[in-house]
Amino acid sequence: MAVRAGRRIPLRLALPAAALVAGVAACAPDRPVTSAPPGQQPVPTATAPASASPSHAPARRPVDGLFVGHTGAINSMVFSPDGLTLATASRDKTARLWGMTSDGPLSLPVTGHTDAVNGVAFSPDGHTLATTSSDNTARLWDVATGDQIGGPLVGHTAAVFPVSFSPDGRTLATAALDKTVRLWDVATGHELGAPLRTTETVLALAFSPDGATLTTVGNYGDDATVRQWHVGTVSPLGARTLHAGDHVWNATLSPGGRTVATATWSGTVQLWDAASGRKLGRPVNAGSDDIAGFAFSPDGRTLATTDNDAVLLWDLATGRRRGRPLTDHTGYINGVAFAPDGRLLASGSNESTARLWDLTRIPR
User: Tens of pLDDT along 127-139?
Assistant: First the structure.
């Protein structure tokens, strides 16, 4: 089927046979009902509405790239390392795993949190999903079954947002509104060392390719702060202040944590070298004072930003926008995520749906 540039993609979704527990009964009618990093809101208020409750209802098969199944705003999403599964996090207190191949069941709900689910991350082998929540915990899940692995990871004293696995999958990093970063042993669920304390709200975090360093970025008024931490000793290595010249609303890190992108209230996006704090290139005028979600493409050449109910793509070499805005959401977009091969983009919004976009024909 021919697909226009930036058009949503009709998909047939499936999960492994073990995941068919996600209800194959009659589907609910199609209706609108989310680092960030993780896509993510910098000073999040992702508290589930009073009417929200964990949804065990089967999700409706995506039609023309539309994912329906959550009953609350979608906060963030991430693709599995092989690109065959999309995980979404929602204020309905659940995450969902969506299969991306052939026929089969629709999606697998992941339930157990008692408040909004804010962040999601896959382990490098794709077998484990980590979630963070406004219930102040992180949790680990078996991707094949949706079952929780061990107990909740307890230690944070406020809502938890960004989450990331180390490259070897043995360590998990989380950050919360209590202005701490915590490292966890994935095998045991035990916290590693003392909490890493910051003076800013951490918006994103990323491990270095060798797993030895963790980089975090957070906002504090008109500045952003980049910190690097030694993972083995759970100790600080240094910090850099990024003088953005306007209130920093959001920030994210490239894969590997080498590049920082900051977004300000004036709608300016600036790239920075994480190690030196040096500006990289000229700022991009993204045209929005409310960039709730943005993400680097896997090759680092494109940045996706949100603009209320649209997604914009930017060529980072030229600072120019790629193609037209990606529109079709009817609610505020909270997060975006690229597939590992960079050909697909997912977006999730306040109307409780996620959408999938084909980027292969969008001009650079």
Answer: 999 999 999 999 9
